Amino acid sequence: MENQKNYLLETLLSVNSQLTDEKAREWVDFLWEDFESTQARAGRSYKGEEVTGQIVEKWIRQYGPHLHRYEATNEKFFGIN
């Protein structure tokens, strides 16, 4: 899993140079956890780290360039700004 997260971190940093390494790592962790918890709450079976990595990569490529502009309204993400 750590190799996948490192790949996602590098991918995020490549699409958004305004994020620090620390903030980018937080985003990768938040997106990873969000996908897995959403799947669990929906009662879906766990598809594994590979599927989670693919979805998070898709989100990073789509939303990553804009994440530095995110304004948290959910307490879970207050530390990200």
Rounded mean pLDDT is 90
Main sheet attributes: strand count, strand direction, barrel closure: none
Oligomer: single chain
**Rough outline:** globular
Q: Which regions have little confidence, pLDDT < 50, spanning 5+ residues?
A: none
Q: Helix- and strand-based class?
A: mainly alpha
Alpha-carbon Rg, integer = 13 Å
Number of discrete helical segments: 3
Order of helices and strands: HHH
User: Could you tell me the strand content as a percent range?
Assistant: under 5%
Helix content: 55-70%
Task: Give the distance, in angstroms, between the N- and C-terminal Cα atoms.
Answer: 25 Å
How many strands appear in the DSSP assignment?
0
Describe the structure.
The structure is a single chain. The protein is an all-alpha fold and 81 residues long. The protein is 62% helix and 0% strand. The chain is built from 3 helices and no strands. Helix 1 crosses helix 2 (21-41) and helix 1 (2-15) packs parallel to helix 3 (49-63). The chain is globular and about 35 Å long.
List strands and helices in order, with pairings:
Elements: H1 2-15, H2 21-41, H3 49-63
